[in-house]
Design a protein that fits this description.
The chain is mostly beta strands. It has helices at 64-67, 95-105, 154-159, 196-212; strands at residues 20-29, 35-46, 56-62, 70-78, 88-90, 111-118, 129-136, 162-169, 174-175, 181-184, 188-193, 218-220, 225-229, 236-243, 247-255, 260-269, 272-279, 288-295, 298-305.
């Protein structure tokens, strides 16, 4: 792959690369059409331009209202893994990045922007990365492709969305239009049906990784709020919740080796604020680990240290 001098250090992603899209989904029903619920979309074959550290890259999706009913997280990872990419770190974004995309690309549909800082030794053209989009599909989205009886299916929704990239100027709070590129998603697309366990394992890996590395390039879009107090703790914890809607709550402990232990079985809570008491000593738990709090399918990970 060749890069002209004028393009060096001017864009996050190589605009000449043809991306490959892999979609993993589960199926809820089969009549009248199979419908998708959980979804993982991986955008692969992304090659990075050569960038010096301390730049800020901006990316965005368009028409996401047609593609996702519940966007859970977006993550840049090393290709073929679920490990957050070391050349990026999270950037404390605000609404202006999305507004900038919307103002310049409103004809493409509603934009949702996210930005990342270039860190460590900078981006490397030899390091392919993948962009993971973890979401739920809109209700009753069929996954029967090329069937006139099951129209507006998952493939059509993805093809109607758009991915964009540019360089964000954090000083002037605007896009630089530095080799900005917008790609339609009607590229090479493969679909695979997966079991529920696939999505559970993926979520565990991603969320555990960002609990360890706070600046990992992962953007969470959780609807609910979860906090743990006190932390560090002698074993008695208060789990403070703010729920947007009525939902089931389940709490698990994950040790540093990834082994799980159920702490709170599934229990329904109304919308609003709640305090849930947890006694980890009664479960024989010691040392450091993670609380995995699942709220109606939405997962929160909190690192906890027991004294």
């Amino acid at each position: 792959m060749l890069f002209g001098l004028a393009r060096q250090s001017k864009a996050c992603l190589d605009p000449d690369t043809t991306v490959i899209i892999t979609v993993n989904y589960d199926t809820l029903a089969t009549v009248p059409c199979p419908t998708a619920n959980e979804m993982e979309m991986r955008i692969s074959n992304i090659r990075l331009m050569s960038e010096a550290p301390n730049k800020v890259c901006a990316c965005a999706f368009a028409s996401i209202s047609d593609l996702f009913s519940d966007l859970q997280y977006i993550a840049f990872v090393d290709s073929g893994t679920n490990t957050p990419y070391q050349g990026f770190a999270s950037f404390d974004a605000n609404a202006k990045s999305s507004a900038a995309w919307q103002g310049k690309h409103s004809s493409s549909g509603s934009w949702k922007g996210f930005v990342a800082k270039v860190v460590n030794s900078g981006l490397k053209v030899d390091d392919p990365v993948e962009l993971i989009v973890r979401a739920k599909t809109p209700s009753n989205t069929p996954v029967v492709f090329n069937d006139s009886l099951c129209t507006d299916d998952l493939q059509e929704k993805i093809q109607q969305s758009v991915l964009g990239t540019d360089e964000w100027d954090p000083v002037n709070e605007d896009l630089k239009d530095a080799h900005q590129v917008v790609r339609s998603m009607n590229r090479s697309i493969a679909f695979t049906e997966k079991k529920k366990a696939h999505f559970t394992e993926l979520d565990d890996e991603i969320l555990t990784a960002i609990s360890i590395r706070k600046d990992a390039p992962v953007w969470l879009f959780n609807k609910n709020e979860v906090s743990v107090y006190p932390n560090p703790s002698e074993g008695l914890l208060s789990l403070n919740l703010r729920l947007k809607d009525e939902a089931d709550l389940q709490v698990e402990w994950m040790d540093l080796a990834g082994r799980k232990q159920l702490i709170q079985s599934s229990r329904e809570f109304a919308s609003g604020t709640h305090e849930v008491k947890l006694d980890l000593l009664n479960h024989g738990i010691q040392g450091a680990g993670f609380l995995k709090v699942t709220i109606g399918g939405e997962v929160h990970i909190r690192k906890v240290l027991l004294l």
